[in-house]
Amino acid sequence: MFNITGTLINYYIHCKTQCWLHANRINLEDNSEEVRIGKALHEISEDRVSEVAFENIKLDKITKDYVVEVKKSDSDLESAKLQLLYYLYILKQKGIEKKGRLEVFEKNRQNKKRFEVVLDEESEGKLQEILADIKELISLPKPPEPKYESKCRKCAYFEYCFI
Ligand code: SF4
To answer: Among 151, 154, 159, which residue has the most ligand 1 atoms within 8 Å of its CB, making it the best to mutate?
Structure first.
């Protein structure tokens, strides 16, 4: 069984086709400007310490009270929050309980917005349902049919899906 990663959760919210393709190892290099900006922001986040990686997840930063995830825009807050919840959930399984903080850079890259994410009973229940759905989705023999939406233009799978 494919290990669920934060990226996979993000893709599940973004697009089920993308989630299936990534889970089934059909990975395309994404050199879009969006991705390059995202990588650059990770590098300049001023108070960032080294990424923390364990098992199949990578945390941008972990402090005494928080797991911090850095995002380049607030265009996909739902998936970013869910991704962070998943990290909190995995840590909780290991006996480490923390809150989550999502740091989103605004367009001018000078300011950032912060959102607190808490793994409570309700959010954990919702997360477990989504994890079960993801396992079912990625076990399907083929990906869901792609449906064109404006977000597809910025997706690494655009040519795969539509050209
Ligand atoms: S191009 Fe569109 S349909 Fe295809 S994987 Fe990307 S977001 Fe999904």
So the answer is: 151
